[in-house]
Fold each of these.
Amino acid sequence: MDDTAEDWENVMWSDETKVELFGVNSTRRVWRKKNTELHPKNTIPTVKHGGGNIMIWGCFSAKGTGRLIRVKDRMNGAMYREILSQNLLPSVRALKMKRGWVFHHDNDPKHTARATKEWLRKKHLKVLEWPSQSPDLNPIENLWRELKVRVAR
């Protein structure tokens, strides 16, 4: 694919991510005075026994955002293909993307599975080749970061 601006406008970017609903998935440290560890400003609410995050799949292009859906179970190849089946083409149609648009997903094993590649081939979808271990190149990561920051507030 040539790297003209018009070419990049025809890419439908997609990915999935986990969003923490109650805080972040890391340790936070605070400066505090001795014996004030239980003061509300020095504590962070938590949720015990799970339920503190959701998995989502979404897509977007230069023309706008496509569908954003919650993934309710652990995602495998069959579920991924079902998500694409129900959400990718409707998103492309809603955004009125030009003929010859290109689909992007990363090199996650469920994306590169033989059955997924075959499904994409049968649908005549052109897939953007992507270097492995390069999530920093996918612009959808910027959307995920912004979403996670806003949810954490």
Amino acid sequence: MRKSLLLAAVAAMALGAGPALAKKQLVIVVKGLDNPFFEAIHQGCEKWNKENASSEYECFYTGPASTSDEAGEAQIVQDMLSKPDTAAMAISPSNAPLIAQTIKSANPSIPIMTVDADLAKEDAALRKTYLGTDNYLMGKRIGEYIKKAKPNGGTICTIEGNPAADNILRRAQGMRDALSGKEGLPALAGEGGWTEVAGCPVFTNDDGAKGVQAMTDILAANPKLDAFGIMGGWPLFGAPQPYRDLFKPLADKIAKNEFVIGAADTIGDEVAIAREGLVTALVGQRLEQVAIG
């Protein structure tokens, strides 16, 4: 089994950065403390501290209160990079270009890695490594499930998170490539039988309630819509009851693949919602291989 544990990676980078004079911090900055996706990493951070109390390093888990606060995350990164006790940092960028610029401005001497979400390819040299899911492949799997359910194609709307989150953009591209059979299309306009409806993709800033409201509006404007591709599980794990209320009337259509929903993650109520027949397919991630445990 692959043993790419986040704290082990951050600690290894810190050891390579030079000897520590006092207890140093291995800082993990996530997109938002309100996002349950990162709770496994939080728990792993606390567990590592308990099991390594005598270490010269300690794990420090932080992030903005809200996942939608891109500027807040960048400010935290800037502040932590300026502290002399920060030995290494792992970042999950909600806005990849903004975080890249923050790193450039700070010009840190400590090693930095990205987790869950990466920097854009042109900024990859700013970090030592990326630890997380192959997001393009994840999106491609979502697209393959949607295509299998409706092989003749149809109309679709993509639900995304932060507009500049590299991991979500890669998932959306993977889904489009799977549905169209072509690579790199910015939108679907009949390729492979699939067309993205007007107003899509919808960016929800990882807000579950906003995602459900967006899908409500899209369905109202497009009553013959055939599918949703949800690039993060926010509407399902962030607003599970409103999600259920929205799609229970479509349960029969979902069961017959007349209406298809492919979504990312298996967090919170997502698996239960799938068992209730209110989502066609979920593509999960192996969080235990990213967290410490």
Amino acid sequence: MLKNNSIYILLLVVLLAIVYMLGIPSRKPHIDDAWLAEHSYWLLHDGLAKSKLMSGIGGSEERLILHHKIFTIQGAIIIAFFGFSLQALKSVSLFYLLLTALLLFITRHNTALFNAKNTWKAALFILFLNPLIYEFSFVYRPETMLMFIGFFSFLSLSSALKGNRPKLFSWIGGLLAGLALTTHLNGSIFIAAG
């Protein structure tokens, strides 16, 4: 059962999430919203990721070889369900921020990560104190997705090292590290850290 302090922290995070979501429609479009959403749009409609916005640069108007593949596929799915909506696409990044906060909350009793009972609250505070979180949580970019997948990979590998079904959790951690790479090239750090 949650203690009162934990309930207050959880309610604060939920309240912040609601305020953030209510603010999405009034947010100004970011150049990456258009650029990365276009990749997903063309993938859905033509079966290939391409960019007419960057026409003439490396043949991008015909086909993109390098792009955030899993993120692009996910965007195509969002567009298929909700249409080509700026708010729907911007919500993807916020969704992964909330999943990361939830994962942090769920693992708060993990003594290998949090040796004092309030350490997870400090980690949550640092997460929400970082100004880049506010920027990338409202832009259709893969950074928050990468953060979630990387943290989940780390937790899986941590469970494997503790002897808690090591083969299964090692496999899950490796799979998530590979997914992190297909989300963003910066995800290669999770494979290297292995």
